[in-house]
Amino acid sequence: MPSGRVMFGGAMLAVTAIACARAKPAGAVQVLDAWARPADSGATGGVYLVLKNTDTAALHITSFETPISTSTEAHETMMHGDVAAMDMKTELVIEKGATLTMKPGGTHLMLMHLTRPLTPREAVPVTLRFSDGRTFGVTAHVRTP
Ligand SMILES: [Cu+2]
After folding, report:
1. Residue 99 and residue 74: Cα distance in Å, rounded?
2. Cα(106) to centroid(ligand 1), Å
3. Closest C-alpha to 90, from 129, 144, 145, 45
4. Fewest CB atoms within 10 A around its CB: which of 21, 41, 75, 129?
5. Residue 82 C-alpha to ligand 1 middle, in angstroms?
6. Is residue 20 situated within a structural domain?
7. Residue 2 falls within a domain, yes or no?
8. What is the value of pTM for the model shown?
9. Domain total of the chain
10. How do 135-142 and 29-36 pair as beta strands?
11. Confidence check: pLDDT of 47 > 80
12. What is the pLDDT of residues 121-142, one digit of tens each?
């Protein structure tokens, strides 16, 4: 039945077009690295992302979500003399073309109260939410620093 086949092909094309239109905003960021420290259940987890802004304007990341912690906060480690303190950031800004490097002792994500342990090579899904409502999914792999 050649006519039936043509109709099926047309329907598939339409579905593909919708999927592409939805996926397009995710091109805003290029993930250069994404990793997490091993940690016990109930502990605080650390996630480190290296993100390059490939969008046409500055990106404002307003929240981070993971399914394995009660909340996730962006922190910046600041040295006050010899004492390290962490400031919570309500927004991380990546200028157009710039790279945000999160690393131990610098900007990082803290997973407050892990609901399960993080073991090496495990994948941790992290959702970034931008100020314009767009979201972007990143997979961080657990490894020792
Ligand atoms: Cu912290």
Report:
1. 16
2. 9
3. 129
4. 21
5. 17
6. no
7. no
8. 0.80
9. 1
10. parallel
11. yes
12. 999 999 999 999 999 999 999 9
For residue 76, how far is its CA from the centre of ligand 1 (angstroms)?
A: 7
50: CATH: 2.60.40.1890
Cα of 87 from ligand 1 centre, angstroms: 8
Residue 71: domain span: 28-142
Residue type for 12, please? M
Task: Kindly report, residue by residue over 6-44, the tens digit of the pLDDT.
Answer: 444 444 444 444 444 444 445 689 999 999 999 999 999
Q: Which residue has the tokens 């409502």?
A: 133
Tell me the CA–centroid distance for residue 105 and ligand 1, in Å: 9
**Domain assignment of residue 1, yes or no:** no
- Rounded to whole angstroms, the Cα distance separating 112 from 66 reads 10
Structure-token match 């792999």, residue found: 141
* 93 CA distance to ligand 1 middle (Å): 18
